[in-house]
Design a protein that fits this description.
Layout: E1 2-6, H1 9-21, E2 26-30, H2 35-44, H3 49-54, E3 58-62, E4 79-82, H4 88-101, E5 109-113, H5 116-121, H6 124-140, E6 145-150, H7 155-164, E7 170-180, E8 186-198, E9 208-213, E10 216-219
Parallel strand pairs: 1-6, 1-7, 2-3, 2-5, 3-4, 5-6
Antiparallel strand pairs: 7-8, 8-9, 9-10
Organism: Ignisphaera aggregans
GO molecular function, one term: ATP binding
Keywords: ATP-binding, Nucleotide-binding
Length: about 230
């Protein structure tokens, strides 16, 4: 299980696209946004997610729409299950059920967007137990890569990350930096990432600038105006 912190959606969508292009399924546990918004985010990066849905490669577990009163139908054809994050056991059981029904193991990826939703309902210890159980049942028992988003803008989220750091397999930090001219003219913000931890894989521990072009991650020098 890997945590992606801060600059999250664009990066994860690009990673998901790599899996989809390789014919591997992607499951998206949507907690922060509704399914329609998530689909639009894929489209913004020129990812025609509808084609992957038709091929049975992209699925959304909808953990947002429980908030919408009077909703009777699933919000998008990619929605395979609806859950209420106020019940962590139901969420985990639904995710396991979906994977078993689709006979998914030893391939694909699972995205949790985001863990902050659980921190708003539960204390840290219960949220940690969810991480342990999810990792055991999805990452370990079924050998599926799990990437979870955690926004660390609050003290409780920072504390949570420090407490689960020994449990998870990897941590990727992302942020936006702004280069300024000596005359204080502000230029275009630049994205950078740092692989803080990645178990069993050689990796650089330096901040690396990257760009995103048509749904692809480009790790390369970025020209900075001076």
């Amino acid at each position: 299980m890997v945590k992606v912190v801060l600059e999250k959606s664009l990066l994860l969508i690009c990673i998901a696209k790599i899996f989809l292009d390789n014919g591997e399924p992607v499951f998206y546990l949507a907690l922060d946004d509704d399914p329609i918004t998530i689909i639009k985010q894929f489209h913004l990066l020129d990812v025609n997610i509808s084609e992957y849905v038709k091929k049975g490669l992209f699925y959304i577990i909808d953990g947002y729409s429980f908030r919408i009163r009077g909703k009777k139908e699933k919000m998008h054809l990619s929605v395979i299950e609806e859950v209420d994050p106020q019940n962590m056991n139901q969420v985990l059981n639904a995710c396991i059920k979906v994977l078993d029904e689709q006979n998914i193991a030893n391939r694909g990826m699972f995205i949790i967007d985001s863990l902050n939703e659980f921190l708003s309902f539960y204390d840290i210890n219960k949220a940690i137990e969810f991480i342990k159980n999810f990792r055991a049942n999805i990452s370990k028992a079924r050998n599926i890569i799990v990437m979870s988003i955690l926004h660390t803008s609050s003290k409780i989220a920072e504390d949570f990350l420090s407490l689960i750091e020994h449990i998870i397999d990897g941590i990727i930090l992302t942020e936006t930096v702004v280069q300024t001219h000596p005359s204080n003219i502000v230029y275009t913000p630049l994205r950078q990432l740092l692989v803080k931890k990645m178990k069993g894989v050689p990796h650089s521990t330096n901040w690396t600038l990257y760009t995103i072009e048509k749904g692809n991650i480009k790790i390369k020098p970025v020209a900075i105006k001076t």
